[in-house]
Amino acid sequence: MGNVKGFSSLLGLLESNLSFEREALRRYKGFAEKASNEELRQLFLDLAIAESGHMNGLINVIRAIKDSTYVVRFLCPVCGWEISFGENPEIGAITRCRMCGVTFELIETDGDFDIRRL
Ligand SMILES: [Fe+2]
């Protein structure tokens, strides 16, 4: 985990969360199978569906990061607007906040993207 440029910590968190969701799904399905009460059985099945949705969302984000199709964005520390470096940016890429006009450089620290005001 964490071997994709700029996403080391985020990928670790996403993969850890995915493991948690997988375990939750497994447990809710098990609870549903064992529930003798129909309402409880349905509740656990609904929770399993919810966990499955969380898993799919996480899998999609992890895949996009690993495929380098995830857009690298930050919130402008000056005005709070979104500043984007696009997909698969190079370290050292420079962009300007569209709202306040301040310029930022994309840097990488300990495997994680960050920005530096120029
Ligand atoms: Fe800004």
Rounded mean pLDDT is 95
What level of helicity do the residues show? 40-55%
Proportion in β-strands = 15-25%
Please tell me the total number of domains: 2
Bound molecules: fe (ii) ion
CATH class descriptor name of the largest domain? Mainly Alpha
Rg for CA atoms: 20 Å
Which class do the helix and strand fractions yield? alpha+beta
CATH topology of the largest domain: Single alpha-helices involved in coiled-coils or other helix-helix interfaces
Describe the biggest sheet? 3 strands, antiparallel
Counting DSSP E segments of at least 2 residues, the number of strands comes to: 5
Strand order of the largest sheet: 3-4-5
**Which runs of at least 5 residues are low in confidence (pLDDT < 50)?**
none
Order of helices and strands: HHEEEEE
Q: Count the helices. How many?
A: 2
